Amino acid sequence: MLVWLLGGGTAMNLLLDLFLTFAKIGLFTFGGGYAMISIIENNCVQKKKWITHDEMMNVTVIAESTPGPISINCATFVGYKQAGFIGSLIATFAIILPSFVVIYIISMMLDNFLEFEIITNAFKGIKIAVGILILDAAFTMIKKMKKKFFSLFFTVCSFIAMLLINIFSWNFSSISLLLIAAVFSLTVFLVQDFFEQKGGAK
Amino acid sequence: MIYLELFLGFLKVGCLSFGGAYGAIPLIRDVVLSYGWLNDETLAYMIAVSESTPGPIMVNIATYVGSSQAGFLGAFIATFAVVLPSFLFILLITALLKTVLKIKYIQAVLQGLKPSIIGIVLATGTYMLYGNCFSVRGSFSMDTRGTVITVILLTGIFAYKQIAKKKLSPITIIFISACLGTIVYGI
Fold it and tell me: Per the CB < 8 Å rule, is A76 touching B91?
């Protein structure tokens, strides 16, 4: 309402909507990147329809291959898609704001934040939800993926590899895993391309 | 000058923090120890605090170190510096995305990357769910309270989907889990 009174019209409305949505997402960014995929998918793909599921997949892959947390990368991406540079600035600012305020207050007042039993107990609970949300994000992606042999092969291999990395605490990051997948799929493509061209030349 | 040091130190963290939260910890440790902003003990404490507050670890640590070293302006500068590289990266990529996605080699790479990331996310979720119900370190043992919360949450999510014909929103799930945590772990 206030925005309408200011005479900003729909453009202002969109910016305000971006700000409020990403501030809300930022407030619930617990437990690192992957849990965020569920929340962002729920808000930006299903509710607001700002981006498609396929774009969400693209930005997840990009986020993993560039520096910075997935949540911030997604905010910048969606903000830019909806309202250009200003949009990306507002969405990125909004997603960081809640954590900035919370940590700033903690750094000012509470040296023994973790000694409050009620807080640590609540977060033990949240940790469990985070695991479930990550699994939910994975199932959504599997449901929507094109089930070709090639794709399933990559999913199964990286699943097994990542599970082993976790179980044995190997010092091998998901980035290196993705790098191997990229090189492998590019090689397959180049070989196929080579034989097709050869076949075409005959 | 402390502001410049904070800016440069966290710019470095922001530039090199590939591979999610925990991948960045060794790098963050390197920077904050070399400037003497935190020691190993306070860093461990900060990681624990980060896990219990919203926001990515690297942003949380930047805000905390900035604030404890140079007040509000310090917190602002450090947070700004840590986010700046990823912001610029994504801006550049998004602006070029349409053109880049048309290149057939990029498409070939993405065809391998997309299914792989699904596998990685699935493995991370599976491992976390397992770790919440059973002890992961040392001898095999069951975490009864963790298992109780997991079962209640999963049943609740499934029941809601059957009855209301739509999914429970992730934010609601987080909220419910926090309440369950205070109750079940509080007993």
Answer: yes
